[in-house]
Structures are given as structure tokens and as C-alpha cells.
Design a protein that fits this description.
The chain is α/β, with parallel strands linked by helices and about 600 residues long. Helix content is about 45%, strand content about 20%.
Length: about 600
Amino acid sequence: MQQHSSLPEPNSSVDATPTLLTKMQQLRAELWLERSLNQLQSRLNDCLLSAYSTVSQCKTTEGEIFQTVVNQISIALNGITVAIALFSERAKMAQVAYISASYSPCSQLVVLETRNEQLQLQLPTTIAIPDLHHLERKAPNDVWRLTDETTAVIGWLMLSQTSPKSDEQSRISFPSQLKSQFLARAIQQCTAALAQLKKIQSLQQYSQQLSSCNEKLERTNQLKNQFLANTSHEIRTPLSSIIGFSQLLLAQGYDPNKQNQREYLRIIQSSGKHLLTLINDILDLSKIEANQLEVEWENIDVPEICGSVLALVKEKAANKGLQLRLKLNPNVKTLVADPLRLKQMLLNLLFNALKFTKTGSVGLEVVAKGGFVHFIVWDTGIGISPENQKQLFQPYFQIANTVVNRHEGTGLGLTVTRKLVEIHGGWLEVESEVDHGSRFTIILPVEPAGIPRMDELTLADGEREQPIEEGESAVIIPSSSRNILLVENDLPNAELICIYLGTLGYQVTWAKNAAEMWLTLTRLQPMLILMDICLPDGNGLSLAQQLREAAEYQKIPVIIQTAMAMKGDRENCLEAGVNDYISKPLDLSLLANLVAKYIQLPKKPSV
């Protein structure tokens, strides 16, 4: 039986060299490809690692990524010149922005093959987009499109068609397929690195914002703690006087003929007003910041308002032994402004001047310049350093007061003052020198822009005259009708109103809640109802609406007296059908005027 062997005959001449050479070349090409890509990735990782290590102040840019890419591709391709042209959407062209370190002036790139033109590859050469599209379609091509992670075109990678002068035998020649594979993967690495860099930069931006927010939060927290400490101290001070002198009066038994007890009452009243001022500062700032502060424009008498303001601070100046001066320009007569707010601005500045002045004088000067009136409050006090002047109008900021060795007030006075000045269409200026006093100047326009002329201004809602329809006659309530129904759940407030209105000759019936109100109305027809909003068994506004829906009670005037004193509270009350509104703490003189207005009784002297 004949046997066959699969081994070649000893004398066979099978040549395995070509196959072996092919495998070696293939392996060499693969090794080159992976080594080149690994080197590129390593350099890109270095860039990203640098960005990561300095995330709080990242300095790595897209430019460094692009420059790394062109350098590494150039090295891998035997030093051939490589460039990147970035796309300009506005100019509708690309401009060479990056070029490899191997750049040589002799390297040239054919842009328009049909015209046989050659373009010198250098910075900052511009290339038309259609020419780049033409070169992209060539095979083999020397232009490669660069996109970001969203596949949007950001530029083109370009290779020089001319190799640098060198020992060509020491260089590797690359098949077009291998070079294409290398460039495609290199571009992918570039795109991935750019996307990663954007994430790092976004993280950096977020970190900076977070750091800034933390600093602001820390500063706000410090200011808040300082504000709470100062406010607590300031509120406790008048409360201590109110409670303490009230206890003295209770212990001694009230005798209006004793001079010291009258002084106790004066202190209690003064402390209560100071406490109200502190609360109003906080409310005013919140209203201003919410753009909810109402301004009542009036044509005011400037000399008169300045005189009344100085009268309010005269006692404090005298207690400190300070001279108080007023200088008025005779040409300044009137000004369109909110008189209450103008007083508030001037008082804030004058009280500050008195607070920071130990010896010398404090003054108010009023001058006219162009269409503006300048209210200058000056003092000979401790002055303000340039550093403190920069923070002077920040909420809750307070300058250390060496005159009394403690903080006074809430730190809101100057903030509120400047905002009020701006609401009036003016501005506030400050000049100061340490140990040489300060000058605060309120500059207001004589007639602010954007408000009606004075002859067009209407009365406030509570004072607006209601026209009498034809066929109607005004109903005048006889002065003998003195019955008032007070609906109030707070015992001290109820006693205060009953006692005060009783001294004015009114007969006040007190209902502690809604149920008692309805029961009282079945046996009493009052000429006026004073209603609180917050009642234990109902809402005052809802009760007012029910009164307006009932025929027998429709014509009874209703005045809301409430601690709700924010923007819109007055309007909400009037919409509910009440006739008027007064906020707590009650101004007894205003209360007397409102009651007399609706009952038509003669007004008694205010307290």
C-alpha cells in the first residue's frame, strides 16, 4: 500500500521568505500605529492631568490640545509639516491657527488642484471652505475634518505634501490605508481630549462659582449674626425702659400729679417710638428690595420740614453738648417729594452724625444747584476711613463707634437712606476724613421725572373724596350718635382703644371674636366698627365682606386696625369693602381723626 507524506520533499524549493516579510511588515506597521497613538494619547493625558491638578485655576486650553496633536502627528509621520485650520463661521472660511514644530518654509500644500496653485503652509493663512471640501474628497487626501463631541465642525487637519529634506532611507514609508487609519484614530483622540477639557473647565467654573458663593454665604452669615446681635441689643434697650418704668408705675401707683411719674411715661413713650423705628427700618428695606415701597408725592415746604427735623434731634444734641446748626439758601422754597421719606432720610443722617461726634457741632445745609436741591449733613466727628467708605452702604454693616464703645442701630439706616434717595430720582454722596468729620449730601431733583404734575396728583385712597350721585344726599350722622363696636382679640390693645376713645366721648362696646360681634349686632346698631383682621374664630376681611352682603349692616363704616403693614395690605382691606385702614402700633391721634371722619364728631386734641 502506497503512503503519502504531507512534508515537503527534501529537495523541494518552497520559498517562504515573501510570506515572512509580509507578516513582519504588517507587524511593524501595527507596532508603529499603536506606539504612535499611545504617544499621542500620553501627551494629551499630560495636558488633561495638568488641567485636573490645577482645577481651581485651570490654565490648559484648547490651543494646547491642538498644538500637541499637530506635533505628535508630525513626529509619527517622519517630521512632515502638520497644521490645523479653525473654522470661522462669521468669515465663512478657515484660518491656519496651529502648525507643528517641524514646520519648514519649503513645505507647501496644494489648495486648488484644478488651478495648479500652491499655498504656503504658514500662520495665519486663510483658506476658503469650498477649497477644503474639495481637498477632503481627494484620494488619498491630505485634509481631515475636525469635529467636537456633537459632530459640529471646528476645523481641519492638514498635512504638507512635501517632506522635509533629510535622509529618506532612514524613514518609514506609510501606505495610504495605514496613514488614514492613524489619522482617523488621532482625530478621535483629539475630539475626546477636547470634550474632557470642556468638562474640566466647566468643573473649574463651577468650583469658582461655588467658592464665590461660599464666600458670599460666609460674609452674609457674618452680617446676619452681627445684625441679629445688634438688633437684639437695640430692641432690648427700649424694651428694658418700657418694662422697667411700667413696673415702677405699677409698684408706686399711678399719680398724674407726680412729676417723676410723668417723666416715666415720657421715657416709655420715647422708647416705644424708638422700638417702632427699628422695626420700620427692617420693613422698609424689605419693601424697597421687593420694589414695593409706596411714595406719596407732595409739594413740600423745605424750610418747614428742615426745621421740624432739627427739632426732633435737638434734645439728643443738647445731651451730648453739641451745637446744632441750620443754613438754608433763601432760594430753596419747595420740593416735590414724599415728606415722610425725606424726614426719614434727613433723620437717619443727622442721628448718625450725632452718634459719631463727641465734641463740636452737627449741621444741616440746604442749597440749590441747577434743577436739584442739595441737603448736606455735616459733622466734626471721628470721620470714616476709605476702607469703611467702600462698605458703608452694605446692609447690616456698622462702623465701630469709639465714641460710645458699642454698635448702635441695625446697620440699615444708610442702606435705606440711599435707596430712598434713588427712588426719589437722586443720589447720595459722602466725603469724610478720619478725625476731621464727614459730609453726607442728598441730591434730589426739584421735580422728579416720571411723576404727575402736582395739580394732577390725587389724594390717597383713605382721603379720596367720594362724589355724590344725582338724587342722593350726603347723610350726616348726628353728633349724639357715639356708639362704636370694637372687634379685637388682644386685651391690651382693646383696653387702650376703649380707654382712649372713651376719653373722647365715644361709647365703645368690645367684642373679643367674630361670634361676639354678631351677637352684639343683634342688640346694638353701632355707628362705626373697628375690626382687627386676625381673630380666633374668623378673618376680619371675611367678616367685612359678610357685613357688606347683609342689607342691615351695609352702611355701617368699617375701619380695619391691624398689625399687617406690608405692601398690598391696605389695598386688600379696601377691596374687601372696608372704609379705611390703620396699622398697628396705633397712632392715637390718627385713630381719633379717622373715627371723627366717619362719625362726624368734633375732633378732640390729640395726645
